[in-house]
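Fold description:
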Amino acid sequence: MWRSVQFSRYGGPEVLDLVEMTAPVPGVGEVVVEVMAAGLNPGESSIREGRLDNEWPAHFPAGQGSDFAGFIAGAGAGVTGWKIGDAVLGHTVRGSQANFVTVPVGNIIHKPERLPWEIAGSLYVAATTAWQAVSGASPGPGRTVLVHAAHGGVGVIAAQLAKRRGARVIGTASPNSFDYLRQIGVIPVEYGPGFDERLRRIAPDGVDAELNRLGDNGLMNVDSTDTVVLEKIARLIADHQIVIPVAAIYPFERVRDAYRELEAGHAHGKIVLCMMPVEYAHQKVRGIDVRESEVTKDVPNRPPVPPIHEALPPVFGHRHHLAAAGPAAESSHSE
């Protein structure tokens, strides 16, 4: 059974449902992608809540999601340079959170082999937004750039791009993110009361550029993809030149919980939906029970020990043998 995330009225995460979808058929110049991972973006919540109704109204029932990564499962007429089974990532308009998505070939790029699924599936909106913001700031040697929310999905990319251009980068964050920012070469500063004084101590001569309110809701509502920028950043991440933190990975069925965490505003990094998680035995992922450590389990007369919670990421599973034959193959396989 194939499903997609939809909502039929404006509201919070409670309006989101998983709805059965029909087998997609690609048109001319299109491909069908079996989605492995789909990222969440704050603008999607704004659309679902109706806050952008004047600019980009929803047409019910509405789909959700922009970023995705997966395998090509079908190709329409006129598609060249791609084959069934290719691993790809890309962008669509309000529809990536589904088992299958149909997009023009201009909306996808090849997934670098060393790029993890959870990052590939949550990359386009954050990467393109960060690239645009940094390009407008013109960072370089001798310049100081202030990046707000530097540990967020967009801010962390923007901060690292500015560093790569030689700028001195200061990033606002909560204290529990300071160590991470220092590891990527960003000078942390706590936001909140007293921020101006703290910033003056770090940058007495002021800053040359300030990247604030990093977000472009238009990227989630225009059916075109800047594949040049996407390829550049995907390659930088795959080559470990840029690091992207992942705050949480949720099974597809827990999409409501995923958006609740996103909308709480405390996530440090991307939140991602995994369509077919293959979990480790005894793993703890968002509340799943775990076991005690095997190291001491069979030791006679051992003293009681508290449970050890393993926070191991899930494996991103896939039906590659079915994807290689297209959605129709799964239909016949399940009959």
About this structure: The longest strand covers residues 30-39. The longest helix spans residues 124-137. Residues 30 and 103 are 5 Å apart (CA to CA).
